[in-house]
Amino acid sequence: MRQIGWGALALFLAAFAVFESVKYGLPTTAAMLGFFALPDLARLAGVRPPGPLYQVVHRVWVPLAIVVGYSLGPVAWPPLFTAGLGWLTRIAVERAFGRGLSQSGTS
Q: Could you report the per-residue pLDDT of 5-20, keeping only the tens digit for each?
């Protein structure tokens, strides 16, 4: 049931990220795709579990803080918001397929 919830969240976040990317153009699309690929880029850079950088890249609260902070704060730079959406989407996709930190029982 948890994986279904993560899957539904991933679909919603992906749709929202695509909507924002179409609305604001290429910089937002690049930010969204770049941060969607962030866990892969970190792994290619040699970041391995259980290190602190690995933990940061795979935790929900980091991109969630970016999205909420952008929504409530005075910053008006859409690529930041779509970067957070892309990163959250990636984490939700990983959790929906049973990968990422959810495997070890942490959120």
A: 999 999 999 999 999 9
